[in-house]
Design brief:
By secondary structure, this protein is of the alpha/beta class. The chain contains eleven helices and nine strands. Strands 1, 2, 3, 4, 5, 6, 7, 8 and 9 form a nine-stranded mixed sheet that branches. Strand 8, helix 10 and strand 9 form a beta-alpha-beta unit. Helix 4 runs parallel beside helix 5, helix 5 packs parallel to helix 6 and helix 8 runs parallel beside helix 9.
């Protein structure tokens, strides 16, 4: 049986502009959601039998995916290949980031049976590589860290060799909670910084870049050390100088993998796209990341954090064996 990967893309991305644009300047006029997308953002994948199978398994096990909850543009491709990214801790996020399409609300309780159902769903889909993320649960003392850890335990009870990537929220900077997740020994430990520091207040209210950098650094120094990964969006008004500075900050934390993708506005209630980056500029960003020294950089218009995730980390994981 052909190996399958349960991976997926996650949110979106920032813009490349000359630093002379100045703080707060934009790389182009805001584009309404109804505007015609550039040709390189057109998606042609359809709905095949595998897509319908993944959808059925998710529904029968009462599971959520970030693919569906965050309106990912790659959902038809990923589900059509038998892959997706599980989203645990419910479907309501306690934060209201202005780029994200996940529902914001007040979660009720904690579903402690979710790890078991997720592991059974993975078994039914025949997966040996899994990506798991979550909503932000600021209502929980540990941010849901124990559910992450229990999910991994359930997965490895059924398959001790399963490869697991965790994409975690910032847990309000609770490093004890971060270490609970790391101690469960995921193969890949990911946390997205999303954008440059200047844009945090507008894009990620309630989050702090220094907090996110500290989480990545904690992953780097943990023993046993996982592959450490993060992602950013472009198209929100950042400059090339700011992207370069952020890359150096990420490299200083020991981050191995960086993903870079185009921010796509989920609705008229979300932040507007300041600029669509053409494919050649994503190639330039990738070259910049390689020059700075990342083990791998995935950069493209439709790249999302967990999109084809284990293709990104495959060589780094092999080197760690």
């Amino acid at each position: 049986m052909k190996n399958k990967i349960f991976s997926q893309p996650i949110e979106s991305s920032p813009t490349l502009r000359a630093s002379s644009a100045g703080p707060g300047g934009c790389a182009g006029a805001s584009l309404p959601r109804s505007a015609r997308l550039p040709k390189w953002l057109k998606i042609s994948a359809g709905f095949n039998k595998e897509y319908l199978r993944v959808k059925r398994v998710m529904s029968e096990n009462n599971l959520h995916t970030v693919c569906g909850e965050a309106a990912c543009p790659n959902i038809r491709e990923c589900w059509g290949e038998g892959t997706a990214t599980f989203m645990i801790l419910g479907k309501f996020c306690t934060r209201g980031c202005r780029f994200c399409d996940v529902l914001t609300g007040r979660p009720v309780g904690l579903d402690k049976d979710e790890p078991r159902r997720l592991a059974e769903g993975v078994a039914e889909l025949g997966l040996n590589q899994v990506v798991i993320t979550s909503v932000t649960r600021d209502d929980l003392p540990d941010g849901g860290a124990e559910i992450f850890a229990e999910t991994l335990r359930e997965l490895r009870l059924r398959d001790p060799l399963v490869k697991v990537e965790f994409l975690i929220p910032d847990l309000q900077g609770n490093m004890d909670a971060v270490r609970v997740i790391l101690d469960s020994q995921p193969d890949v430990f990911a946390h997205n910084v999303e954008t440059v520091e200047r844009l945090y207040r507008r894009v990620r209210p309630g989050a702090e870049l220094e907090r996110s950098l500290a989480i990545l650094k904690e992953g780097h120094k943990f023993n046993p050390r996982p592959v450490v990964k993060t992602g950013i969006m472009v198209g929100l008004g950042e400059t090339l100088d700011e992207i370069t500075e952020l890359f150096h900050q990420l490299r200083d934390t020991g981050t191995d993998i960086v993903t870079v993708g185009q921010y796509l506005r989920p609705s008229d209630d979300h932040l507007p796209v300041e600029r669509y980056y053409p494919p050649e500029e994503f190639e330039e960003i990738a070259a910049l990341g390689k020059q700075i020294g990342f083990g791998h950089i995935e950069s493209g218009p439709l790249v999302r954090s967990s999109y084809r995730a284990f293709n990104q980390s495959k060589q780094l994981l092999a080197n760690a064996i």
